[in-house]
Task: inverse folding
């Protein structure tokens, strides 16, 4: 980096009172505190700011590196103000509510970007950009982002939106070259070929070995299991230190998709890394117009991150080998052959929540334009689809001054914002909880929070239905009878209610999931052979406890079995709220269209036929819920799409037809068209198209298109 260029940009009045910049650092740096030390030294070398703010994630390891880097820089003329994304966002919101400037004099604000651009990160960046503009008359402010990638397109578009010059990039490079003299990349068409090439590579090589296997547990299992110890990467830094410090002789570490080691490899003579450049992920599926789980190719940015994990070494190994599964060698390196656009959380999976949060900021932010800054070009179909859905659900609306605002009541807004982080920023679950009830009974409110916690933690996936139904003595009625708690009378209405009732029964029987079988599963009482997954059950329990705490709700029963069942009016309200929350996942269920009595299921928004169910979900459908002479309706939480184009639901929960009919007539009144069909009310922004990051042989066209 050219320090004089940075000095001039930081302090020259010709730059402007407000300017955006970007610090790009080497991705394979061993000690991030050293990188931050270099950044702080250069930022403050000529003139100390009156205020130095750094905003990062709540990952303790990342925040600690920033604080240690500042201490190492030896700066005494200015104090560092470190913030987490969430705390910074709340701080700005609070300052806005009291009015008046918050930055004075000469200020530097640095946003340490999360590579996946989470909602927390996006909100922190958005509010920082607007804050520095609000205080431009009172201070000279430099807003900078920091990451190992090029400047984020959202930051560039924010600059355009705020009528500022484009962010200027300053590169920091302080990563020593620790390339081995014996360094290779090996392409393998299959796991069996990987096994053979790996055995050849380790033969007669003395010294300890480590194998990092990314997103392919089958590959991890096949790599010489007799002599290598297999471990899974955990989230705690202490565990990473234990695994990656070179104390093991032959170690294989399985790294789940989305996880990365935060510390450098050290003490290993031979380093191996296995990469599968594709992953089954939950994303907005352009071929369906819904969020589905399907196979995607890793983007270039993600591949470079994985390569940096392989190259982040505290010392030089004798050999280093990277194995790429399922891709052939081309003229380009494997990390440069993926899709150009990386799917970021903020516009891919969580756009509905982001739109709503931005709209809640009030008139200081043009919500529609601000959200658009974070959606890359070519992905407008996701933006337009989500915008239409949120308006159809009355969550968003256009104000008289053509600004996008919330359509929720004041209390609904607060509950929505408060619960979002605890349901994985799934706006449907937050909206389900937030909707006001006519009765407002404690039982209804508690049941909604309970259901959201269970669904967000896996729902029916908590239980091994695929092993139990229909090939065991357990019947659907046995499982329905085992349900307990407020929602017992709804247990025959499909997957969500069945999962909630069974989760409660399991909690009571296992002392809040503490009593397990020898294999670590949770066993139901009596003769039921169904078992539950303890980790998911505890996740739901923790989520329920946190949401109840922040909403000020106190359970009055010691056990779920002591809960009285919901009244008829509460059942009607809660099903109505569930329907409105999952309106865009409404499914029609029709029996006998083909004359043989079979039931056909269709996703009404995408107009796609649902061809099957996942993990025994079809066996949870009570036959009495689908009449012979009229369609029934249900909603699903999750979809899967296979590479042949077929889609399956992971769950289905029935909605009373009268609720659907009432909503249809209300919608017709709203648009002034008494003949308007539900197929036009529920739709996707554009027709189906191929996913830019799908497999090359992906079947993207619907079979009936």
Result:
């Amino acid at each position: 980096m050219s320090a004089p260029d940075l000095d001039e940009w930081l302090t020259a009045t010709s730059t402007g009172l407000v300017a955006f910049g970007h610090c790009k650092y080497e991705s394979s740096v061993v000690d991030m505190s050293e990188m931050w030390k270099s950044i702080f030294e250069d930022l403050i070398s000529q003139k100390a700011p009156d205020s130095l703010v750094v905003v990062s994630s709540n990952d303790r390891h990342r925040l600690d590196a920033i604080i240690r880097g500042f201490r190492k820089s030896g700066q005494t003329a200015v104090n560092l103000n470190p913030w987490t994304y969430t705390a910074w966002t709340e701080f700005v919101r609070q300052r806005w509510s009291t009015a008046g400037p918050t930055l004075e004099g000469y200020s530097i604000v640095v946003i340490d970007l999360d590579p996946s651009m989470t909602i927390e990160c996006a909100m922190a960046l958005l509010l920082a950009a607007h804050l520095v503009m609000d205080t431009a008359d009172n201070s000279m402010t430099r807003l900078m982002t920091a990451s190992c990638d090029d400047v984020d397109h959202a930051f560039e578009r924010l600059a355009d939106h705020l009528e500022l010059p484009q962010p200027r990039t300053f590169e920091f490079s302080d990563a020593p070259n620790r390339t081995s003299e014996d360094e290779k990349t090996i392409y393998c068409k299959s796991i069996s070929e990987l096994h053979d090439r790996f055995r050849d590579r380790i033969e007669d090589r003395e010294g300890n070995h480590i194998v990092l296997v990314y997103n392919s547990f089958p590959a991890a299992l096949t790599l010489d299991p007799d002599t290598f110890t297999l471990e899974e990467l955990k989230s705690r830094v202490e565990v990473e230190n234990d695994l990656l410090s070179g104390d093991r002789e032959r170690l294989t570490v399985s790294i789940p998709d989305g996880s990365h080691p935060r510390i450098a490899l050290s003490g290993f003579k031979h380093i191996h890394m296995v990469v599968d450049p594709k992953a089954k992920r939950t994303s907005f599926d352009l071929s369906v117009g819904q969020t589905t789980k399907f196979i995607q190719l890793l983007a270039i940015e993600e591949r470079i991150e994985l390569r940096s994990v392989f190259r982040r070494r505290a010392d030089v190994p004798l050999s280093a080998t990277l194995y790429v599964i399922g891709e052939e060698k081309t003229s380009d390196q494997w990390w440069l052959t993926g899709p150009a656009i990386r799917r970021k959380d903020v516009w891919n999976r969580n756009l509905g929540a982001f739109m709503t949060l931005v709209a809640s900021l009030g008139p200081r932010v043009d919500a529609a334009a601000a959200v658009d800054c974070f959606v890359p070009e070519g992905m407008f179909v996701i933006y337009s689809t989500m915008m239409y859905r949120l308006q159809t659900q009355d969550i968003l609306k256009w104000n008289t001054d053509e600004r996008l605002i919330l359509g929720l009541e004041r209390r609904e807004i607060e509950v929505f914002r408060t619960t979002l982080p605890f349901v994985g920023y799934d706006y449907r679950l937050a909206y389900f909880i937030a909707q006001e009830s006519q009765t407002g009974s404690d039982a209804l409110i508690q049941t909604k929070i309970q259901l959201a916690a269970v669904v967000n933690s896996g729902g029916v996936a908590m239980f091994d239905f695929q092993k139990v139904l229909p090939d065991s003595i357990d019947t659907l009625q046995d499982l329905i009878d085992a349900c307990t708690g407020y929602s017992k009378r709804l247990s025959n209405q499909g997957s969500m209610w069945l999962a909630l009732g069974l989760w409660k029964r399991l909690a009571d029987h296992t002392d809040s999931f503490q009593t397990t079988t020898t294999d670590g599963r949770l066993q139901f009482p009596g003769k039921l052979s169904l078992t539950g997954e303890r980790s998911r059950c505890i996740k739901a329990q923790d989520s329920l406890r946190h949401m109840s705490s922040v909403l000020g709700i106190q359970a009055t029963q010691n056990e779920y079995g002591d809960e009285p069942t919901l009244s008829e009016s509460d059942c009607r309200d809660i099903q109505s709220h569930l329907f409105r929350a999952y309106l865009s996942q409404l499914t029609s269920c029709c029996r006998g269209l083909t004359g043989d009595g079979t039931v056909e299921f269709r996703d009404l928004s995408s107009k796609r036929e649902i061809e099957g169910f996942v993990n025994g979900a079809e066996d949870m459908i009570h036959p009495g819920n689908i009449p012979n002479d009229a369609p029934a309706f249900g909603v699903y939480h999750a979809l899967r799409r296979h590479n042949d184009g077929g889609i399956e639901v992971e769950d289905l929960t029935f909605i009373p037809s009268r609720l659907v009919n009432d909503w249809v007539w209300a919608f017709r009144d709203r648009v002034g068209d008494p003949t308007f069909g539900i197929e036009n009310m529920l739709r996707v922004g554009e027709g189906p198209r191929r996913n830019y990051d799908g497999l090359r042989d992906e079947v993207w066209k619907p079979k009936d298109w």
Remarks:
- The chain has five domains: 3-172, 183-336, 345-392, 408-567, 582-681.
- The first helix runs from residue 3 to 11.
